[in-house]
Hints:
The complex is a heterodimer of chains A (780) and B (96). Chain A is mostly helical. Chain A contains 25 helices and six strands. Chain B has a five-stranded antiparallel sheet. Chain B is of the alpha+beta class and 96 residues long. At the A-B interface, helix 1, strand 2, helix 2, strand 3 and strand 4 of A face helix 1, strand 1, strand 2, strand 3 and strand 4 of B. Chain B: This is Sm domain-containing protein.
Amino acid sequence: MTEILQENLSKLSINDKDTLKSSETKITSQVNPTVSSRANLKVFTDVTDSFFKIASKIPFGEVVKSNQFKLLEGTHALEILNPKLDSALLDLTDFDISSVKTLDEVNWIMMKLLGCLCSWLDNNSLSVSVLSCVYIQKLLLNYQNLEDPKLTFDEKPNGDVTDVILRAFSLGLLQFVKFVLKLGQSGVIYEEEDLNTQTMDLDFLTKVDVAETDNDLKVAIELIESNYGNEDGCNFCLKMLRLFEELLKCESLLSVNADLYTHSEFDSTFLSRQLQLLSELKDQQTYLDSLKEIPNCFSVNIQRQLNNRSPPKPLSCLPFAVSVESLIGMSNDLVSITKILEITDVIELYEYLTCFMNRRLNTNDPDEIIGNHVVARALMQLFLIRDDRSILGSRKWFISDMMLDLLYKVSLQNSKLSKIDTMPGFEVNDISYQKLLAQLESPFYNYLTSISQNPSRQRQFINKELILWDTLQVEAENFELELNPKLNDNFIDSNIPTMPVSSFVYYFKLVRMIELMFKSIELNLFKDLREINIGYWFLSYLIGYLTQHIVRLLDINRLRQTQISNYPKKIKKAKGDKKLKLKEEYESHKVYLDQFLRVETYLKYQMNKMELYKKLIELKLTTLQILNHQGYLKLSKLCRAPEELLFELQLKSYQSIGIPQLPTFKDYQDSLTKFNEVFDVLYKQKNFRYFKSFIVTKNDEINDDLEKLKELASDLHYNQLLTDDMMESFSLLKTSSLSSQETLSTLLKLLESEGPKALKVTIEKLNYHLYFPNISIELQ
Amino acid sequence: MSSSSLSSSADVLHPIDLISLPYKLHITDGRILSGILISIDDQSNLLVSNVLETNGDITRELGLVSVPKSTISKIYVDDNEWNKNIRYRVKKQSNE
């Protein structure tokens, strides 16, 4: 055995020498600046036969792989010589960049480039959109030419329309792409899910200042103004150049440093100008339709020529009208971001952020839920939360301050706990209290970051946040219950402790639990009526808890108001130093009276909203449970999983929550059985009078609630944008309410006249509140 | 490389020894792919990472690439790394 091995070793050493001499079987890697240095100075030997002989030892059905490599990653691999995956198989096209001579031709390219930009912002890659333009490719390659970097299309520019106008436009566009790439790479939004930031390793003008590009745009504008008449082409070109002048100013939002609630000045007129230019550009469609296409100016060449880790893809360019609409949406979303500077207190700020997070673009596609524009989402978070955790770059407001401000407003203001740091004998407790407050920052930060996410990620963020709130609730309750016998901060004439911190935590936990379930409905996660029924049934359960808890918060609020109003009586009775002390206390407390009144209105508003939701849910549940009676909520015969398991899986996110405890499957079944028993009697008698009057009652109650909500919203004096958003939401709730009533009424009529016949049940989302899609019922 | 050494490396090396080595794969259409082999299946289809594709004058990065056996005309390997593996196997066997 040893002899054979020795022989092998000696063969190997001979072989080494042989291979070093042989020039036929070896290649030394070429020294090429574009090739990574790791490949240099290595000697490569032809091992084709040995390789396949060794590989043939792999047993059938097995894969040999590196330990670090996960086979799932292999699904992203590009397969050589597969036309669908190998970009080297793409056909190259020729285009002479000096062939474009007229302004109309330049305008056509600019129009297409705008479509490509919006297509990229619509989550396509740069390689199939912006970089598919031969001029953009040339400009970037010339810019990163190590020997002679130039910001021109050609070696020797001759100052024609392409060299001045198209170049300036391209630079403006690339500067905007650079800005969006910066947003995309900042870690706020998700790669590929929200924005594709693959740049094919091209340098997007990293060393070119925006001011320099702005100057190029100005020169181009002057050139057109001085050399061209007032024709359509000239107007279009000017507007496009001016549009990019304004778009480049979006970055200024990130340099705003403002204190919260101070109505800081910020010149956002560039956004109005953007919107104005976009609105004017919309009217130029007739001119654009008259332009001739320039063949091969946009091509797949770059996918074949540059670093490319993606399979070949067809080019993507949005039509001009769609692009303009998309940019209008973006500008409007940016305008709404600037409104944060007009906000007057944390209650309004919290409501504004929640509203911003829930803004949706209604679409026909049931699976497409579109939130704010991706640029606005990324900008919002970077604008709101800075690297140093300050809010809006303020020196006074950090995340912890904002969280504390909200806590004080909701439940902590004027509580004994809030003064613990000044109370003798509570030093140790104060340390624990400060620790508890510091812990609150974590779920609050999660909330702040969730507002910039896409609708699906928002749900994921809320899911994560629930655990944080739940853990904190336990800690806060233990702390406050232990401390209260010493503090004695109870409701009037009772031994019930106010527990302001726990109350705050529990409130936000319940709100987020409800949001999580509503977002599951919004995202269409529940694929059949049975799941939707469970969803609404559980929501009704949670809303019951929340409304009870809001009553508690209102009681705390009123307690503090009463405590303030009791001061004059106490002062009257007191004498000497005690009188003076009480007077001081009264002065310091009464300044918060307006704040208490405002928070009371806010809590009433929340209460009313939840009651309205509950009534809408009752309408939905009645319809769904009648459908259940008719057998429409049964599991498919093919489904092997027990219903209880499916119930538990659907509510899995809530299983770890301590309070409120997750209701059992039996609770759910009992509720269905109870309804079925009652409905069965009525159904046999074809007596649906109760349900008909139920619809009328709910309609009246919902209308009353909506009116109350409008009144309360007006009493809260929110800014116009927030008020408008709320009014739009009320209008959608009204539509959903009417549709729910109509559906229930139709169902009853069908059962009354037709008896048990096959029904077609569909879920419709368009033009309805996303939490309450319409359940449409008709005869099959 | 002599036929005897071919048989020796093929006899000594195990399939796992082929992994993580730098290769240059000559493709039937004339391209050369340089990269690190990370996986190989029973049909000798390869998964190669950090691939640099050389196609005439153009060299570019492709990332993770799957190379079916049918598309390979030649396989070149970094001599040093290959021989290191052989020496390791031989030494291991002699110890056993």
